[in-house]
Design goal:
alpha/beta, four-stranded parallel beta sheet, Alpha-Beta Plaits, Rossmann fold, three-stranded mixed beta sheet, 2 domains
Length: about 270
């Protein structure tokens, strides 16, 4: 088994073999680490691209812009058009595939227009264990996965990010807002917006790791069990109920299992 330093050396070696690279940059733990390492190696031969649309929280878009600016990376925002795809909006289990095939196709064209030969995303080794149909789209379009190729897990990336002084090293995992809507429930700007606003309420109250699952008029809150005592504190609970009702939810429930990444994928046959 490779050591952490050996995995990092493998990543550096793979990136050093590229003449240019476009990184799909969300501002999360993985893509920030990939971008930081790639920038040290490729410099001006590197472009970071961040997609924005109703499925991406504005706070994440803003954070990505700030990170890229601090790193001095050539950074571009593009509007992704997954909401124009009826197949995506219908929110079936292949939703992520349809989103990524469109997005990566756009990034490949951008790369070609800028004389860049390679496009990469920040998928890590642990991501391969979950139901992620978007990975199939990446494979079909030959999008590079340097972190997987180097054998890096999420824990590895967090540790290396901490060593590098990246502020994202302990950032909670993030996924697009569509992942909060049960499969089969059509995606709309309205229900995605309700989720974004509701999760912002929880962030404002200090809950860093959280999800608000949208079940029609019911908001199902997921936070780590360690945060249960805080979220049910009377004054906190009253504020959450009041603000989420103002957003449009009628009933607000706490999931007693706590925050589970990818919990909406239960029951999906892979």
């Amino acid at each position: 088994m490779k050591t952490l330093n050996e995995k990092k050396a493998e990543l550096i070696s793979r990136l050093s073999g590229l003449d240019s690279l476009l990184v799909a940059f969300s501002g999360g733990v993985d893509s920030t680490f990939l971008l930081a390492v790639a920038h040290k190696i490729l410099g001006s031969r590197l472009i970071a691209v961040t997609a924005y649309s109703p499925v991406h929280p504005v706070r994440e878009q803003n954070a990505a812009c700030q990170l890229a600016q601090r790193m001095g990376v050539n950074h571009t925002l593009i509007r992704s058009e997954e909401m124009a795809d009826p197949g995506f909006v219908s929110n079936l289990p292949d939703r992520c595939y349809r989103c990524k095939i469109q997005l990566f196709g756009h990034l490949l064209k951008m790369a070609a227009d800028n004389g860049i030969r390679h496009v990469a995303h920040g998928v890590n080794l642990d991501d391969l264990k979950d139901y992620r149909p978007g990975l199939k789209a990446a494979e079909e379009l030959q999008i590079k996965a340097p972190l997987v190729d180097a054998g890096l897990s999420k824990a590895d990336i967090r540790e290396l990010s901490r060593e590098m002084g990246l502020t994202t090293w302990d950032k909670p995992a993030m996924a697009c807002l569509a992942s909060r809507i049960p499969y089969g429930t059509p995606l709309t700007v309205e229900n995605l917006g309700m989720v974004e606003q509701a999760e912002q309420v929880l962030h404002d109250l200090g809950f860093r790791s959280c999800r608000v699952r949208h079940h029609g008029s019911l908001a199902r809150l997921e936070v780590p069990p360690a945060d249960f005592s805080e979220i049910v504190r009377r004054d906190v609970a009253v504020e959450i109920v009041s603000r989420l009702r103002g957003i449009g939810f009628i009933r607000i429930a706490l999931d007693l299992e706590g925050y589970i990444q990818g919990s909406m994928n239960r029951g999906i046959s892979t």
